[in-house]
Amino acid sequence: MDDLSLLSDFSLFLKEKKSEGYKIVAYLAHDNIPEELLDAAGFFPLRMIFGGNDDLMDASHDYLPPSTCAFAQSCIGLFSTKPNLFKFLELVDYFIVSNHCVSDVCVSEIISRYFNISRLNFYVPYTKNESSLKYFKLELLDLKNKLEGIIGAEITNERLLESINKYNQFKKVLLEVNELEILGSEKLKVIHRAMLYGPEFQPDLDKFVQYVKENPSPISETSKDILFTGCSIFINDNMVDLIEEGGGNIVFFDTWIGNHYYSQIINDNSINMEKDPLDLLVLKFKNNVYGDHSVPNFLEHKISQIENYYQDYSKTKGKKLGVINHIIKFCDHISLMSSFLKDRLQEKGIQVLNLERDYSRANRGQLSTRIEAYLEMMK
Question: For 141-159, what is each residue's pLDDT tens digit?
Fold first, then answer.
């Protein structure tokens, strides 16, 4: 299914949710927003996972300078212009202001203020220690109280535990999708759809996994296998197409829209033993060491994870694996660390392409040339 069909179908789905009494809460923040808590309160979590273009970026410049993250610019552009395929953004009731990065905070505040969307705050610590875990739980409690005030009812432990279990099972199926030997573009379409619709999409996920297992579709033996890290590929972005047109195939998405999301599974024994379900969400945050919101050891964890995956893949598949580090222009998290990441991985014999870009249409030819040159070098 292409992006146009996906967005059209999702618009109808979201309208149905509103008619059923759901509140729609949108957010930019990447790894640590407690969607289980939102779901337990009867809210529908809407991730802003939509790529941009020149028009959307330009539309944001009345609010922020062009030196802002291109993804963040595009999100403002979506709300200020509301293209036909994104009319569903008019259904958003609340916007979460969080602190994944500086652009996240600024853009979320702008969207809430200038487009008259009620604001919910949820701030996440950058460190992983006992104090930060206590702080994270206080933020969970504060958000829970705000949600209960909105709905006029208590979010019971039973209801929250039910949501935690639901999302846990959903992510387990996404992990199965992650292991399927299919084209990266097909895998990404499924991941995009799943992360938009949430656990309600799980029956379709189950059918998809079963179908692929029963009807394997061999991938060209001449394609170059790629581990894709850095910034995510969003809906309406042609990056995965450029890689496949150049002769590559993404076998692992080491990004927020990808492994960072569906690897956050809580152990079933922990779920059964824990009396306070909020502590399970704290545990999930504690274990999320691969996201770029984990200080001071984020880079060490990421380098170790990529190296381990590289070694395992080479051993089991007998094929070389390339690494593309995707950098959205002015992304303060990924761009600042890109040279260090590349140097450390290449010291270990892992070839890395640092690919920085914005959403300008004019960049397509230059990007294609760089990708093709890198894939040719992998011979």
Answer: 999 999 999 999 999 999 9
Listed in sequence order, the residues at least 6 apart from 300 whose beta carbon sits closer than 8 Å to its beta carbon are none
Specify the pairing of strand 321-328 against strand 224-230: parallel
Tell me if the domain spanning 163-377 has CATH number 3.40.50.11900: yes
- Whole-angstrom CA distances from 85 to 11, 82, 200 are 8, 8, 22
Residue 172 buriedness (CB in 10 A; 0-12 / 13-18 / 19+): middle
Q: Residue 13, SS3? A: helix
d(CA 75, CA 223): 34
3-state secondary structure 280-338: HHHHHHHHCCCCCCCECCHHHHHHHHHHHHHHHHHHHHCCCEEEEEEEECCCHHHHHHH
Q: Do domains 3-156 and 163-377 have the same CATH topology?
A: yes
Give which of 176, 226, 184 is closest to 351, Cα–Cα.
226
Cβ neighbors of 362 (< 8 A, separation 6 or more) are 54
pLDDT tens figures, 300-345: 889 999 999 999 999 999 888 999 999 999 887 788 788 999 999 9
pTM: 0.95
CATH fold of 3-156 reads Rossmann fold (3.40.50)
**How many of the other CB atoms lie within 10 Å of CB of 306?**
24
Task: Parse the chain into domains and list their residue ranges.
Answer: 3-156, 163-377
The C-alpha atoms of residue 143 and residue 281 are separated, in whole angstroms, by: 13
- Distance separating alpha carbons of residues 92 and 211, to the nearest angstrom: 35
236: phi > 0 → left, psi -120 to 50 → alpha, else beta; which?
A: left
Q: Rounded to whole angstroms, how far apart are CA atoms 32 and 136?
A: 10
Closest listed residue to residue 324, CA positions, set 248, 258, 262: 248
Are the CB atoms for 370 and 108 separated by under 8 Å?
no
